[in-house]
Amino acid sequence: QVQLVESGGGLVQAGGSLRLSCAASGRPFTPYHMGWFRQAPGKEREFVGNINWGYGGTYYADSVKGRFTISRDKFKNTVYLQMNSLKPEDTALYYCAAAAHWGVTVTDFNSWGQGTQVTVSS
Asked: Under a CB-based contact definition with an 8 Å cutoff, are residues 33 and 101 in contact?
């Protein structure tokens, strides 16, 4: 079983930046894709972006494109979410997840972290 642990969340003013980390441990970690999702109170969990673990290709939701960047460190088994130009509407619990194939929906991913809270004040 793969364990995923997110960190780096916090409170930031609008326009600011945060970098989230997701560290994986457990059995040999060879996902096909890693993804980031977020869930605001009263809303469904939504896709933020994903990264191909092998060659590093990325894909983003339109709402974060140009502001958020996903990267990974294969030696540290860690994926990152760099968030710039944050807006109050980015406030949510952010989750990382692992998948055996390319995906953008919750059901595409089979391992999840517990989430880290990001709050953006106006």
From this structure: yes
Q: How far apart are CA 38 and CA 55, in angstroms?
A: 24
Distance CA(55)–CA(13), nearest Å, equals 34
Spacing of C-alpha 58 from chain mean position? 12
Contacts 24+ apart (CB under 8 A), 105-108: 105/47, 106/37, 106/45, 106/47, 108/35
- Token pair belonging to 121: 């004040």
Give me Rg for the CA atoms of the chain: 13
Structure tokens of 70?
Answer: 């996903």
Report whether pLDDT(92) > 90: yes
Which residue has tokens 């997110």? 6
Phi, psi of 91 (to 5 degrees): -60, 125
With a CB cutoff of 8 Å and minimum separation 6, the contacts of 44 are: none
d(CA 16, CA 10): 11
Which range is least confidently modeled, 25-34, 58-67, 108-117? 25-34
Q: How far apart are CA 70 and CA 88, in angstroms?
A: 20
